[in-house]
């Protein structure tokens, strides 16, 4: 037991490397926030465009959403990070992480919002158009609010899953929580920094898990 | 334009890397089978504990699900692979991946099962009990088949996520598909092997992603 | 008619917290007898019925089926005893993922351990009896409510129960489908099945029941032959209920 504590909860190591891990938390949070905003905005925009039902446009939207839902983000990260410099585009690790995760989240968000639009009753669209709102305003003021409410629980779950992937930044030198603690681990020769990273992630993501659970229970309640 | 094709779609390099990637794909498939099967079974037990009327079963499973949904799978993987040896526990890369992803995806599968089990009407349990079936017989023959059918799209989309997740094994040098591709990339100084790996993943997962969308549309209608 | 009791409910009580649903219920159902339970909604009649096979856990009291107390024993004993108590639900509760034949054979095979051949033969017999042998391959969603309820009756009968409990078996049916289910129940009665029925079908009760029990507020207010209860009810509450139902 003592050895276990010494290995994973060494107070001296903790005190020494906590500042690094906390700095990593800042990086993780900043990238996560940017990904959430950009990913949801792009996904929502694509879902709205898709509602206009232009064939060619929709074909491309669907292809985009399919590809980015099927590809592991780490593959894209490596392609952007290692492949783009040789065609003259040099991106920082943080930028690569932001781009890939935003595009991935957008693909999922588009599908989730679109499912929300599909679930809005046809009568709602008809009522909006019949009252002279026109398609765009019906979309914005009638369908969208209902679609967003339906989309909330799966969206929060997906946001959670994708923001957790900021940990992939450690593979391309982004000094977020995980790479701060693996670096500390190799310097200190102790597993304690890894424990710190686990704690840091729980601090950030546990509230999101609880929020997701709460949202799900609330909607499940209303169905009854 | 030429440089773009040369860097990302270099057929000669792709051909050379192909056998190596095929080997990697084989490892990826083995990982998938292990992780998916264990996750499906483990997740079911976690879900059953979660729905149990007994508090000593319910609370630990709630904590289990929430903690492992909050932790990034890569963090779990690094913790098990690089952390446990400090405590004298050495695990092979394959085992580390299986354990880490089992912890992660059994929590996700458990949430899906839970929703499915709740969606089955209480009358089904009662009808089964009234005909003398035991609790476990009622579960296996009556309730579970309906539960699984009700959440099939979610089970499937979770399985897609698990397959994608196996790419993280490359971080601890397990020679699966992505690791092999990255090896080829670093030897050739060319990103085409990575693009080829992406194509492999697409061939593997695009049909499943289509299927998920198809199911979801049918359920919405 | 001094037949032995097939079902005996003794001093049955059911409470939810401070709320008493059933108070000191005593009721005997003799072999081959059809006892009909009526009463306003919330009177506890369905709860009483569901206590008889412990789908609802009684707070205290005894339920004795053919001489064996189902309140005693392990959960495995309970499953064994439930085999002898057929139950038909208001909502049918057929298994939607199985066809009619599998619905009727599942418990025969898994709980009674009958062979597939034996269970199939028995199931077809029972489906014949409820007039639905030709629907053996159909799925529940392809059947009308009346047909589903008849399959549910066949499912229970196939286990050779000693008594059948009916929990408002026709309440969820369209009026034109009620007759087909009642006909099957009448046929069962004529073949000597012991039955305890909770229902609002007063005409059926008058015609078929040996005894009618009126429940209100968690107690048995009055019991007697159909002629006694419907013709000359003694208690004021019974009279009020019957006039409300008739009116």
From TrEMBL, chain A:
Its main location: membrane. It is a multi-pass membrane protein. It is found in: Cell inner membrane; Cell membrane. Belongs to the binding-protein-dependent transport system permease family. HisMQ subfamily. Gene3D superfamilies: MetI-like. Keywords: Amino-acid transport, Cell membrane, Membrane, Transmembrane, Transmembrane helix, Transport. Residues 25-211 form the ABC transmembrane type-1 domain. InterPro entries: AA_ABC_transptr_permease_3TM (IPR010065), ArtM/GltK/GlnP/TcyL/YhdX-like (IPR043429), MetI-like (IPR000515), MetI-like_sf (IPR035906). This is Polar amino acid transport system permease protein. The chain crosses the membrane at residues 21-49, 56-81, 87-108, 159-178, 198-215. It comes from Neorhizobium huautlense. Coiled coil: none annotated.
Automatic annotation (TrEMBL), chain B:
NCBIfam families: HEQRo_perm_3TM (TIGR01726). InterPro entries: AA_ABC_transptr_permease_3TM, ArtM/GltK/GlnP/TcyL/YhdX-like, MetI-like, MetI-like_sf. Its main location: membrane. Keywords: Amino-acid transport, Cell membrane, Membrane, Transmembrane, Transmembrane helix, Transport. It is found in: Cell inner membrane; Cell membrane. Residues 25-213 form the ABC transmembrane type-1 domain. Belongs to the binding-protein-dependent transport system permease family. HisMQ subfamily. Part of the binding-protein-dependent transport system for glutamine; probably responsible for the translocation of the substrate across the membrane. This is Polar amino acid transport system permease protein. It is a multi-pass membrane protein. The chain crosses the membrane at residues 24-49, 61-81, 187-209. CDD domains: TM_PBP2.
Automatic annotation (TrEMBL), chain C:
Gene3D superfamilies: P-loop containing nucleotide triphosphate hydrolases (3.40.50.300). One of its GO terms (molecular function) is ATP binding. CDD domains: ABC_HisP_GlnQ (cd03262). It is found in: Cell membrane. Residues 7-242 form the ABC transporter domain. Keywords: Amino-acid transport, ATP-binding, Cell membrane, Membrane, Nucleotide-binding, Transport. It is a peripheral membrane protein. Belongs to the ABC transporter superfamily. PANTHER family: AMINO ACID IMPORT ATP-BINDING PROTEIN, GLUTAMATE_ASPARTATE IMPORT ATP-BINDING PROTEIN GLTL. This is Polar amino acid transport system ATP-binding protein.
């Amino acid at each position: 037991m003592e050895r276990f504590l010494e290995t994973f909860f060494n107070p001296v190591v903790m005190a020494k490397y906590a500042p690094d891990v906390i700095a990593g938390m800042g990086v993780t949070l900043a990238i996560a926030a940017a990904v959430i905003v950009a990913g949801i905005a792009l996904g929502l925009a694509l879902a709205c465009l898709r509602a206009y039902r232009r064939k060619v446009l929709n074909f491309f939207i669907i292809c985009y959403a399919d590809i980015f839902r099927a590809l592991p983000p780490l593959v894209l990260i490596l392609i952007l990070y290692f492949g783009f410099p040789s065609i003259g585009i040099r991106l920082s690790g943080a930028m690569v992480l932001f781009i890939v995760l935003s595009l991935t989240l957008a693909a999922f968000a588009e599908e989730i919002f679109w499912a929300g639009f599909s679930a809005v009753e046809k009568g709602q669209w008809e009522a909006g158009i019949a009252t002279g709102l026109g398609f765009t305003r019906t979309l914005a003021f009638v369908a969208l609010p209902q679609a967003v409410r339906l989309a909330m629980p799966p969206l929060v779950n997906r946001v959670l899953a994708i923001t957790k992937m900021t940990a992939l930044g450690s593979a391309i030198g982004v000094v977020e929580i995980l790479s701060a603690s693996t670096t500390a681990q190799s310097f200190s020769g102790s597993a304690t920094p890894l424990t710190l990273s686990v704690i840091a992630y729980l601090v950030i993501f546990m509230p999101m898990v609880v929020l997701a659970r709460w949202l799900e229970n609330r909607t499940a309640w209303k169905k009854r | 334009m030429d440089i773009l094709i040369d860097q990302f779609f270099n057929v000669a390099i792709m051909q050379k890397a192909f056998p190596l990637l095929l080997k990697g794909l084989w490892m990826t498939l083995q990982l998938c089978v292990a992780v998916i099967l264990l996750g499906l079974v483990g997740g079911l037990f976690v879900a059953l504990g979660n729905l149990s009327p007994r508090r000593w079963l319910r609370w630990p499973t709630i904590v289990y699900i929430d903690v492992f949904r909050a932790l990034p799978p890569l963090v779990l993987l690094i913790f098990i692979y690089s952390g446990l040896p400090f405590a004298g526990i050495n695990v092979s890369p394959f085992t580390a991946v299986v354990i880490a992803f089992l912890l992660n995806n059994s929590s996700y599968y458990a949430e899906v099962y839970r929703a499915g089990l709740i969606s089955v009407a209480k009358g089904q349990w009662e009808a089964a009990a009234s005909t003398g079936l035991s609790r476990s017989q009622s579960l296996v023959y009556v309730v579970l088949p309906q539960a699984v059918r009700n959440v099939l799209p979610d089970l499937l989309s979770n399985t897609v996520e698990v397959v994608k997740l196996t790419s993280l094994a490359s971080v601890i040098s397990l020679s699966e598909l992505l690791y092999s591709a990255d090896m080829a990339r670093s030897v050739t100084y060319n990103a085409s092997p990575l693009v080829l790996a992406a194509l492999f993943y697409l061939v593997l997962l695009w049909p499943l992603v289509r299927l998920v969308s198809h199911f979801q549309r049918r359920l919405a209608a | 008619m001094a037949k032995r009791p097939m079902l005996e409910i003794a001093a049955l009580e059911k409470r939810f917290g401070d709320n008493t649903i059933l108070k000191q219920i005593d009721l005997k159902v003799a072999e081959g007898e059809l006892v009909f339970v009526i009463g306003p909604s919330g009177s506890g009649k369905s709860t009483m019925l569901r206590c008889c096979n412990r789908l609802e856990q009684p707070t205290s009291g005894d339920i004795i089926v053919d001489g064996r107390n189902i309140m005693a024993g392990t959960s495995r004993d309970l499953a064994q005893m439930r085999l002898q108590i057929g139950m038909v639900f208001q909502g049918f509760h057929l298994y939607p993922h199985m066809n009619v034949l599998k619905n009727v054979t599942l418990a025969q095979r898994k709980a009674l351990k009958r062979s597939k051949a034996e269970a199939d033969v028995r199931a077809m017999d029972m489906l014949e009896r409820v007039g639905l042998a030709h629907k053996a391959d159909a799925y529940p969603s392809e059947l009308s409510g009346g047909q589903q309820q008849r399959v549910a009756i066949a499912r229970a009968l196939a286990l050779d129960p000693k008594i059948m409990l009916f929990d408002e078996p026709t309440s969820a049916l369209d009026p034109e489908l009620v007759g087909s289910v009642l006909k099957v129940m009448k046929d069962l009665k004529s073949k000597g099945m012991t039955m305890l029925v909770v229902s609002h079908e007063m005409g059926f009760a008058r015609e078929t029941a040996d005894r009618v029990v009126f429940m209100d507020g968690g107690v048995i207010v009055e019991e007697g032959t159909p002629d006694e209860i419907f013709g000359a009810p003694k208690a004021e509450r019974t009279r009020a209920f019957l006039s409300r139902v008739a009116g």
